[in-house]
Amino acid sequence: MNTTFSCVGCGKCCTGHHVPLTLDEARMWANDGGQVIVLVEAFLPNGLGLPVAQREHAERRSAVVRSGTSEALVAITFAAYNTGRCHNLDADNLCRIYERRPLVCRIYPMEINPHIPLNTATKDCPPESWETGPQLIVGGELVDQELARLIERSRQADRQEIGMKERICVALGIHTTALKGDGFTAYLPDMSAFAAAIDQARSQPLEQAAGEWRFHLSGDDIASQVTAAGACVVTETPVNYAFISLRAA
């Protein structure tokens, strides 16, 4: 597969997308007056919720936490909350923070998850973006080495920062996760509290957070499997989060 790409500045990738952020970027986003969304998913040590081929990547970006009499591996994403146009876009669809824009913005249209191949049909870019420009992929391989380095930086931050992210979540009262593949739990924290939690977590030695995590699930069939594994399942109506189901209706 060969793919060419040239950004035409349409601004569509900057509209309606929650952009994953590193800790530094999340702190910058808060400082700039933006909103961060916290997305949480987890799987169990027995592999429930996780395809076998994805286990190594998923384990490396997850924190081991307690849930009932079991452990769970929790993955936490801090992302820029963009339900409409990114607040950093100007009237001409130009980025006001272009020189310090997040890694994922620099990486686009490539994926940071190694198990998700680039699919031009799922991107918002207009057809002309794929008709001209330098070669991006040749023979199925990414040819831009600087882009490859940026992707690796993003993946490395994802792995290295997970312990800190879990501590921040516990400090914010975030302790309910979805099962990977079944959905996400989504939180919109107060940004002053969010920034303070980042600063506090960074100023203290990194230790495993003491909070107990529980699962919000899409149905009783999934819940029974999680409960049978010894993990804690929430039954009350969400108060400080939304559950985003990935389950087909």
Q: Could you say which structural class the secondary elements and strand pairing correspond to?
A: alpha+beta
Shape summary: globular
- Give start-end ranges of low-pLDDT stretches: none
Total count of helical runs of at least 4 residues: 7
Note the main sheet: 8 strands, mixed
| Number of β-strand runs | 11
User: How much is the average pLDDT?
Assistant: 92
Total domain count: 1
Euclidean distance between termini CA atoms: 34 Å
The Rg value, from CA coordinates, equals: 19 Å
How much β-strand is present in the residues?
A: 15-25%
Oligomer: single chain
Give the SSE order as H and E letters.
EEHEHEEHEEHHEEHEHE
Summarize the structure.
It holds the Pfam family CxxCxxCC. This protein has seven helices and eleven strands. By secondary structure, the chain is of the alpha+beta class.
Describe, in plain words, how this protein is organized in 3D.
The chain has one domain. Strands 2, 3, 4, 5, 8, 9, 10 and 11 form an eight-stranded mixed sheet that branches. It contains seven helices and eleven strands. It starts with a strand and ends with a strand. The protein has helices spanning 23-31, 55-60, 103-107, 145-160, 162-171, 191-203, 220-228; strands at 3-4, 19-20, 36-43, 63-67, 70-80, 135-138, 141-142, 176-179, 183-187, 214-216, 242-245. With 249 residues, it is an alpha+beta fold. α5 packs across α6. The model has no long low-confidence stretch (mean pLDDT 92). It is globular. A hairpin with a 2-residue loop joins β6 (135-138) and β7. It comes from Pseudomonas marvdashtae. InterPro entries: Puta_zinc/iron-chelating_dom (IPR005358). Pfam families: CxxCxxCC. This is YkgJ family cysteine cluster protein.
